[in-house]
């Protein structure tokens, strides 16, 4: 694998990230990138920059950084680097609110990492990131498996990573508590602290782990105390041991809530929770579980003796946790549908096996194949209808979510079109977000009905879970594809029909936009 430790400035940036000093790491990367020695160093700079802005929650920079890192990792072609990239990009997808994209990236990450022949410390780090990604979305079994792989790889190079992923255990323990299994939570958190107690110590008396992990041990101490299951140790040296990354700031804020609960000060605990929740807070994106704020509110109300309020907060915690399970059910059903679309697409592609005639992104026939298909129709004396379909809102997807997400949209659209169209129809990707549909033997009288069926089916796709906040639809224009077209202004048959259909598509797009504006005005 292209080892990050072979580059001193990359190693320095990694050390800053591990110390919770992501701002300093990003500054170093931005200063060093222009003088990077080769493609490998540039790729690692981009990957670590992505890790840094994730820690800092600089969401406006996500899409651009993901696109640059994707291109660099793809060009390098190293499976370990690609695994590292997809593990990080899954966290971007979760921030976007797309569980489907997140899981897709995590699965790809694991597949790439299993291809690595000679693991090193950066492969261990990639498995580490994969474990964190699975843990963040509540896939605790998969997180534990990836964490185990990280420790195994680290052990092969004489690194002791037994305490390298406390957050995975903490999140699992909290998940159990949110579901009502407080005893299970206490067992897991106590086991984590027992491991920490038996670890080698630093000069300051804390466990000899990287600084960014210490606040997780600190939160474990405070959370056990809030459950009246702790000891008398002071959590503050742990909570405040690392830098000021956003994730660590959240842990400290919740840690102070737990300290107030343990001290019997329900008023202070509820006041702190109110401040946390009012800071543009989305429970589903919480790094310590969607139900944690409500669960702590329940504990604070119990301290105050307000059992009715505690019960209501407890119900809210359970409801937020259950919402995650509902999303998984939807993801499972959508995943089966997507797999069926992929199988249909694969069978379609099998009919057009020549790679020179196939679009590599979607697997559909490409422009060259389209030309050959239309020429073959002309030789047979066969008429039909040609449609040009454009995805409305696609540019916003690339801008907001990045080109990698845009590629996923195109792949989903291709699969949906294959599912929607008749077996004898021909679907090609023309370029960008434009697709061409050939309907042999069809007439223009049927195009309104066919177009409505296609646009309705595409609109029914769950784009919101794939690229949240960027609605997508489709516009279609139609033209006759017959023997007369090749005599219009001397243009080839396909070019003439495409020009007419393309113009009709833009007219349909403009009409839809005008109707939308009229609706808003009304």
Structural summary, described in words:
Pfam families: GGDEF. Residues 382-522 form the GGDEF domain. This is Diguanylate cyclase (GGDEF)-like protein. The protein is mainly α and 522 residues long. It folds into three domains: 1-161, Tetratricopeptide repeat domain (Serine Threonine Protein Phosphatase 5, Tetratricopeptide repeat); 164-323; 351-521, Reverse transcriptase/Diguanylate cyclase domain (Alpha-Beta Plaits). The chain is built from 22 helices and four strands. It has helices at residues 8-18, 22-32, 39-56, 62-76, 79-96, 99-113, 121-136, 140-156, 166-178, 182-197, 214-226, 236-239, 246-262, 266-278, 292-304, 307-350, 367-379, 394-401, 403-420, 447-459, 463-466, 493-521, and strands at residues 384-392, 426-431, 434-440, 473-481. The protein has a four-stranded antiparallel sheet with strand order 2-3-1-4, with helices on both faces. Strand 2 and strand 3 (434-440) form a beta hairpin. It starts with 7 loop residues before the first helix and ends with a helix.
Structure summarized in a few sentences:
The protein has helices at 8-18, 22-32, 39-56, 62-76, 79-96, 99-113, 121-136, 140-156, 166-178, 182-197, 214-226, 236-239, 246-262, 266-278, 292-304, 307-350, 367-379, 394-401, 403-420, 447-459, 463-466, 493-521; strands at 384-392, 426-431, 434-440, 473-481. The protein has a four-stranded antiparallel beta sheet, sandwiched between helices.
Mean pLDDT: 87
Low-confidence stretches: 484-490
- Secondary structural class: mainly alpha
CATH class of the largest domain equals Alpha Beta
Largest sheet: 4 strands, antiparallel
| Large-scale geometry | elongated
**Separation of the first and last Cα atoms:** 60 Å
Looking at CATH, which topology of the largest domain would you report? Alpha-Beta Plaits
Total domains: 3
Number of beta-strand segments? 4
Question: Given the structure, what is the number of helices?
Answer: 22
Tell me roughly what share of residues is in helical segments. Answer: 55-70%
Strand order of the largest sheet: 2-3-1-4
Rg from C-alpha positions? 27 Å
Topology as a string of helices (H) and strands (E): HHHHHHHHHHHHHHHHHEHHEEHHEH
The name of the CATH superfamily of the largest domain reads Reverse transcriptase/Diguanylate cyclase domain
Strand content: 5-15%
CATH architecture of the largest domain: 2-Layer Sandwich
């Amino acid at each position: 694998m292209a080892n990050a430790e072979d580059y001193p400035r990359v190693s320095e940036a990694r050390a800053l990230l591990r110390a919770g000093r992501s701002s300093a790491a990003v500054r170093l990367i931005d200063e060093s990138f222009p003088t990077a020695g080769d493609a490998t160093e540039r790729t690692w700079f981009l990957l670590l920059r992505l890790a840094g802005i994730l820690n800092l929650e600089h969401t406006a920079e996500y899409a651009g950084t993901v696109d640059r890192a994707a291109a660099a990792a793809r060009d390098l072609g190293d499976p370990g680097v690609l695994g590292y990239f997809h593990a990080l990009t899954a966290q971007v997808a979760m921030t976007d609110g797309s569980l489907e994209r997140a899981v897709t990236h995590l699965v790809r990450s694991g597949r790439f990492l299993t291809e690595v022949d000679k693991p090193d410390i950066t492969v261990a780090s990639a498995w580490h990131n994969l474990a964190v990604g699975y843990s963040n979305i509540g896939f605790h079994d998969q997180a534990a498996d990836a964490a185990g792989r990280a420790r195994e790889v680290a052990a092969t190079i004489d690194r002791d990573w037994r305490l390298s992923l406390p957050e995975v255990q903490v999140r699992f323990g909290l998940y159990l508590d949110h579901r009502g299994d407080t005893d299970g939570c206490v067992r897991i958190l106590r086991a984590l602290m027992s491991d920490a107690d038996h670890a080698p110590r630093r000069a300051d008396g804390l466990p000899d782990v990287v600084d960014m992990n210490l606040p997780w041990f600190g939160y474990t101490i405070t959370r056990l105390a809030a459950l009246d299951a702790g000891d008398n140790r002071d959590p503050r040296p742990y909570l405040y041991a690392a830098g000021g990354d956003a994730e660590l700031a959240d842990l400290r804020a919740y840690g102070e809530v737990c300290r107030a609960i343990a001290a019997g000060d329900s008023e202070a605990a509820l006041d702190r929770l109110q401040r946390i929740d009012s800071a543009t807070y989305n429970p589903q994106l919480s790094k310590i579980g969607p139900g944690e704020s409500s669960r702590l509110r329940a504990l604070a109300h119990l301290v105050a003796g307000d059992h009715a309020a505690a019960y209501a907060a407890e119900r809210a915690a359970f409801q937020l946790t259950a919402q995650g399970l509902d999303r998984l059910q939807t993801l499972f059903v959508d995943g089966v549908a997507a797999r069926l679309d992929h199988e249909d697409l694969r069978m379609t592609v099998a009919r057009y096996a020549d790679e020179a005639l196939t679009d590599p992104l979607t697997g559909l026939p490409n422009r060259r194949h389209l030309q050959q298909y239309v020429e073959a129709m002309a030789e047979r004396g066969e008429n039909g209808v040609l449609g040009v379909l454009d995805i409305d809102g696609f540019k916003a997807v690339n801008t907001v979510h990045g080109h990698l997400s845009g590629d996923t949209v195109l792949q989903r659209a291709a699969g949906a079109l294959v599912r929607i169209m008749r077996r004898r129809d021909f679907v090609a990707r023309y370029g960008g977000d434009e697709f061409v549909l050939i309907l042999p033997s069809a007439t223009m009288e049927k195009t309104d009905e066919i177009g409505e069926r296609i646009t309705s089916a595409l609109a029914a796709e769950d784009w919101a879970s794939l690229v949240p906040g960027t609605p997508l639809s489709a516009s279609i224009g139609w033209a006759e594809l017959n023997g007369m077209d090749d005599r219009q202004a001397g243009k080839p048959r396909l070019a003439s029909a495409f020009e007419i259909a393309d113009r009709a598509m833009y007219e349909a797009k403009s009409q839809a936009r005008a109707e939308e504006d009229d609706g808003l005005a009304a």
